[in-house]
Design goal:
The mean pLDDT is about 80. This protein is an all-alpha fold. The chain contains nine helices and no strands. The protein has helices spanning about 5-15, 15-20, 40-65, 65-70, 80-120, 135-160, 160-165, 175-220, 225-255. The chain is globular. Helix content is about 75%, strand content about 0%.
Length: about 260
């Protein structure tokens, strides 16, 4: 996707040392090109958003420490009610997929991903800001965390039964038939599992990057009124992509941690 120039681009350009030392980070994985300060922009933007989310979460948590305020719900939409509704929805979704016990155990990953992706996507609505989720580096990093997590959870919960399930072991009582099925199923399941982070990352990156690009083009052509409907459509994309990523994450974790007798 084409690189956009934003406020953070100009801010990072004010530090000559960053320009000179950015190449010391190494080369890009796909293109094997030297990393520039513009290539580091999504990382800095992600760090800023993480700090923002942590601060907002701290403010909301302080509200719950005050028992009188925590019991009585706010009459209007506040930061507290937004976090309650937002996280409650994703917790309910995870509970429906993997059960309340597992949802409570694995929700820090799902809820953290939901908050980061939502705020990252929402930053595309602010003119002059480039959403971190419009960069494949960020979305692939998110997807790899999910990939490592659900495989780790699956091995932790089921041990070698997790691998046996991928191989389809135990479907037939005949050992020869079981081996034949394992030879057929294991490569297919391994490829299917390894493709998951690729599809997660590319789907999120393309939707946000293209949405941001179209919005920037129309904003440059007509600054008033016309971009408003596009902003509403962008808001739908922001919410839907956050939902899809967390939905698939919940499904992957649910499938990996499901007990053998539940299959």
């Amino acid at each position: 996707m084409p690189k956009h120039t934003g406020f953070l681009t100009y801010l990072l350009a004010l530090f000559p040392a960053l320009k000179e030392n950015a190449s010391n980070v190494g080369k890009t994985v796909l293109g094997h090109e030297d990393v520039t300060y513009r290539g580091l922009e999504p990382i800095f933007m992600s760090m800023l958003l993480i700090v923002l989310v942590v601060i907002l979460a701290g403010v909301v948590r302080s509200k719950f420490r005050k028992l009188d305020e925590a019991v009585v719900p706010d009459e209007t939409l506040t930061l507290r009610t937004f976090f309650e509704a937002f996280l409650s929805y994703f917790y309910g979704m995870a509970s429906d997929i993997m059960g309340k016990k597992n949802a409570k155990r694995y929700f820090p990953l799902i809820g953290g991903a939901a908050l980061f992706i939502f705020f990252s996507n929402a930053s595309s609505l602010i003119p002059g800001l480039n959403p971190p989720t419009g960069s494949l580096n960020i979305t692939l990093g998110l997807a790899l965390v999910v990939f490592i997590a659900f495989n780790y959870y699956g091995l932790k919960e089921n041990g070698m039964d997790y691998v046996k399930h991928l191989a389809g072991w135990g479907v037939f009582k005949n050992p020869i038939a079981s081996v034949a099925l394992a030879v057929l199923m294991l490569p297919i399941e391994l490829i299917s599992t390894c493709v998951r982070p690729v599809t997660l990352s590319i789907r999120l990156m393309l939707n946000i990057a293209v949405d941001h690009l179209i919005g920037a083009i129309f904003l440059g052509l007509v600054a008033l009124f016309v971009p408003v409907p596009l902003a509403l459509l962008a808001l739908i994309v922001i919410v839907v992509q956050t939902l899809v990523f967390c939905l698939l994450t919940s499904i992957y974790i649910g499938l990996a941690t499901e007990k053998a007798h539940d299959h």
